[in-house]
Amino acid sequence: MRPWALASLWLLVFGYAVRFALAKLPQPPHFSDFNHFYVAALLLRQGLNPYTILDAVAHSLGLDVAGIHSTSQTPTFLLCFEPLIRFSPLEAYWIWSGLSFLAFVLALYLLLRTEMRFETRQLCLFSALVFIYPAVYEHLVFANAQTIILLLIVVAMYCLRRGSDAGAGLALALATALKAYPWVFAVYLLCLRRWRALIWMIIAGAAIGLLTLWGVGLASFSFLNSIGTTAASGFLAVPGIPSLDAAVSRLFWSQGNVALTPATDLARRGAIAIAELAVFALTIAATASARPDRRARAFSLWVPAMILLSPYSDPHYLIMLVLPFAVIADATRAGDAPPRAIYAAIASYLLTFSRYPLTLLHHLLPISPVLLRRAGEFWFLALALAYLAAYWLATSAGHSAQDDRSSASAATAPASGAR
Fold this sequence. Notes:
Layout: H1 3-23, H2 33-45, H3 55-61, H4 75-81, H5 89-115, H6 120-131, H7 134-142, H8 146-161, H9 165-179, H10 185-191, H11 195-216, H12 223-230, H13 233-236, H14 244-252, H15 262-288, H16 295-309, H17 322-333, H18 339-351, H19 355-364, H20 369-374, H21 377-394, H22 401-404
Helix pairs in contact: 1-6, 5-8, 8-9, 9-11, 14-15, 15-16, 16-17, 16-21, 17-21, 18-21
């Protein structure tokens, strides 16, 4: 953490950011998730069902949707995205990208400045390592909304620490309404008997649902039909999909052939259920046994668990691992993190860079494209290691309650009279 080393690292960050902004961002009409958001929201504004086939409208706008015929976004998300339809696709893209990046910066600021106790140099080092994290690159390329979900989860963590059950419940309810998969934090609140926060999450969720139904209409229920779309073999068979559902499924599917006999497919579904139940059981047990001064560690564990348990996830979902990484780094700073948690977190971080040397070797050596494609499995391995790191930290005995306060360990401890 010498000044010259930090300055060199940040110079690399800025150089990488400029090169990326000038040459790598896939602006419309090139494919990104933004194109799907824009077309689906346009259908919604026109009074049509946004979960119908998108191709015709996308073609009329000249937007590439990569042959994906329907959206899988929640109706609440599309309703919130709809104001951007007032702008042209290119203008809306830059506004959306700016809002997404701003949400990421706000999440980092709130997490690192209020929930952690990093020294200035430690803060500079951690932030620089975050900005060169490949998951950040993936998120900017696909122009998705995981940074907004990260911000809402960090807000919930902030509110729980300060006994603001209403704020935490509202933040988690909005995150769930926007992307569905953050619903698992309701189980977290249930484990800790944070009844008021859970009730606020349910009440806020119901209110948001009614507002969405009023704004979107009965087409809102078509979202339920879209859930099976992303759970189809055409999506889950891609090695870069890091969800537990996809990783287990790929063990049963051979290269390029996903047709299974009914018995084998039943075994696949059974293996998925067992793996997901195991993650749930481990996460719930770690949360229920967490000391009141260690509950921020349990909170951070639910972030990788949430991504693993999501029916479908992309590499850019791993941008949310910034939260458990920060908690592990702060516990390490306090000398209160088990070595295996530290090493697992470092390995998780480094594994996401594996694609770059492999791509370079692909240009220099005759590496099979199939082997290069299989390198996408590193995303699942990185996610699994991040989960193990957060789990080992959450279940570690630690040295003292005093040491752990710096990682916002009281973040989820009930305030007086909260139960």
